[in-house]
Write a structure and sequence with these properties.
Elements: E1 3-7, E2 16-19, E3 23-26, E4 33-34, E5 45-50, E6 53-58, E7 65-67, E8 70-71, E9 76-77, E10 83-86, E11 89-94, H1 127-133, E12 135-136, E13 142-143, H2 176-208
Parallel strand pairs: 3-4
Antiparallel strand pairs: 1-2, 1-11, 3-5, 5-6, 6-9, 7-8, 7-10, 10-11, 12-13
Organism: Acinetobacter oleivorans
Protein name: Signal peptide protein
Keywords: Membrane, Transmembrane, Transmembrane helix
């Protein structure tokens, strides 16, 4: 379980620093986190580990130490996602990953199975009784099994006789040509009748004139 700082500004951008002990921040050669810049004091700040918690303390630096853009005057506890700043150098804080503890084992309770009910309780013979009633040959085939006979056919009924089929009548279609001839014939008779009536009318007119 180690705290980490990740640089988000300056020439160290993207680099990670593991905080596994108390560390000095500054531009002095003995500093654990060495920041070579004029704005950084020789002994700028200290990172402290207390009961696996990370704290930061400003050591009377000239340009200050900040947590989330707020300048601190005394020790300040750091949390996951905080931004700690030394002068203009900013770092993101990453807390240690939580270890997953072993889950307690769950004992499976035995399942109580109900005893099988004898079929004889339901009015049926038990398997033992049925086994003793049927004789089995050497090859395992049952013997002396009675097969029920089919119901008798009533007298006077011939199952082979076939019912007579009623003849199906088809109406002969009337020819289209025959209909047209019949219509022409009727038209001719009507025309002749009209001509005869006209002739008779002319004769009567001449006779009585």
């Amino acid at each position: 379980m180690t705290w980490k700082l990740q640089a988000i500004t300056g020439e160290f951008t993207g680099q990670e620093i593991n905080i596994d002990r108390d560390m000095l921040v500054g531009r002095h050669q003995d500093a654990d986190l060495l920041l070579q810049a004029a704005e950084i004091s020789r002994r700028h700040a200290a990172l402290l580990l207390k009961d696996q918690l990370l704290w930061v303390q400003d050591l009377n630096s000239s340009n200050g130490t900040f947590v989330n853009d707020i300048r601190i005057e005394q020790e300040q506890q750091l949390h996951e996602g905080d931004i700690v700043q030394f002068a203009s150098f900013k770092f993101s804080v990453f807390a240690p990953a939580q270890e997953i503890t072993d889950l307690p084992e769950i004992e499976a309770e035995p399942v109580n199975t109900a005893p099988s009910q004898d079929l004889s309780d339901q009015g049926m013979p038990s398997l033992t009784e049925r086994a003793t009633e049927i004789e089995v040959s050497r090859d395992g085939m049952p013997q002396n099994i009675s097969i029920p006979k089919p119901a008798p056919i009533p007298e006077g009924i011939d199952i082979k006789a076939q019912q007579p089929q009623a003849p199906v009548s088809f109406d002969e279609p009337v020819s289209r040509v025959a209909e047209e001839k019949e219509q022409q014939k009727n038209a001719s008779v009507g025309l002749i009748t009209i001509i005869i009536l006209v002739i008779l009318a002319l004769l009567a007119w001449l006779f009585f004139k």
